[in-house]
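Exercise: predict the fold of this chain.
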Amino acid sequence: MSTDTLTRTAAGTTVPAPGTYTIDNSHSSASFQVRHLGLSKVRGGFESFSGTVEVAEDPAQSSVEVTLDAASFTTGNEDRDGHVKSPDFLDVETYPALTYRSTGVRQVGDEWKVDGELTIRDVTRPVTLDVEFEGAGEDPWGNGRIAFAASTEIDREDFGMTWNQALETGGVLVGKTVKISIDVQAVAGS
């Protein structure tokens, strides 16, 4: 499978060839950053997730579905990770997964937007991803691969994660805005 068969031109931009692509968890990441103390940013992500990307002949008819394992959340700090997994935030015992399901794909100039529904703690809200197609290639075993980068921002309180702590100096311990960055490599036909 050559790069020529993995990409095409549609709507004036390079896009992946039509087909079903399975997200390669080991070569993808779903990460976030949130303000701490109003000063610095804490970063982390999910180590385990799965999903598929369906690329349609008409790119605007494409879709994506992703499931993230809530218990795989990590920031590299065991105490903080335990707190985020608790009922104050993700409540992984009650809600073991976060999901994203697209509801539409649209082109805005040279950029692509994926509209969808993000579900956290059984609360579903519309979320739009800014998506960039990063290219396609073949791995050493002959598998076609495509790559995307996506980003968005959400308000964690919209999903029922309202815990916070006021600081004596003003402000709060944890910011409400969560910046999300996603880098996906997906394998054709798997």
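Check your answer against the key: The chain has a mean pLDDT of 86.
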